[in-house]
Design goal:
Elements lengths: L1 H6 L3 H7 L23 H8 L19 H7 L19 H6 L5
């Protein structure tokens, strides 16, 4: 457990997890509310994972990860957020992917 205590931010989720009552274990996902990619999440999913079934709208750069269990069980929400890139509505076609493979 010392690794989590020294980890600071990781400890915010790990330490409350030790006190969750009841039998069994719960899986939770932790992430920031937005991605750092400068393209809208839904557009990226349509382009690169077209069979993905969206369970809720993902406006802008919303992260496609459900963190409800982390909030409900642990009271965890991301606090230290990194400013993402400015919004970019530019299309990222095959030519751009060849010349700029990291979308940056």
């Amino acid at each position: 457990m010392a690794w989590y205590v020294r980890g600071g931010r990781r400890a915010r989720a790990a330490l409350p997890a030790l006190g969750v009552p009841g039998p069994g274990a719960h899986a939770v996902h932790l992430c920031a509310p937005e991605t750092l990619v400068p393209f809208p999440t839904e557009e990226l999913l349509r382009r690169y994972h077209p069979t993905a079934r969206l369970l809720r709208p993902l406006p802008g750069r919303t992260a496609p990860v459900d963190t409800t269990a982390a909030r409900r069980l642990l009271g965890f929400t991301a606090e230290r957020l990194i400013d993402g890139p400015g919004e970019s509505r530019r299309d990222f076609d095959a030519e751009e992917r060849r010349t700029r493979p990291f979308m940056g």
